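Working notes for the structural subgroup meeting. M.R. asked for a predicted model of this chain before we commit to crystallization trials. I am recording the input and output together here so anyone reviewing the notebook later can reproduce the run.

Input as submitted:
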Amino acid sequence: MSEEQATRFERGTDGPKVIMVGVDGSDTSLRAAAYAGGLARRQNALLAVVYVQPVMAAGAALGAPVGEVTDEIAEGLIAEIKDATERVKDIFSVRWEFHTFRGDPYNSLVTAADELKADAVIVGASEQAGHRIVGSVAVRLVKAGRWPVTVVP
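Returned structure, recorded in token form:
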């Protein structure tokens, strides 16, 4: 590498363009969203907020309105995000989009990251004890090795 190449710096061209965060309404996912929002603001990146609506065939078979419940969760998350961005809009400016996917969390987050061309994926740590044995979505995303993944406790 020449000395000229080593000293050249391109302002504004480095860093992520899309930071994706998976949210499900849990405390850890909301902390992950706050962390990802800060990263997106500092990097001037788009924050892609992704909610995965679970498909529960057993619940539907029992007559539970699963689709309606997950739609309500998505609407609640959108309202919460809009409220949070409205409170800080004079201080911080973050470009963001909300996306919903249906399916299991791991495969849906992988699909979302690919479709959105995410440069980084942020998720909250699992709050379920069984994931220490089976493996959480976060661990599976890290093991996929396709994007930098940050797991927020």
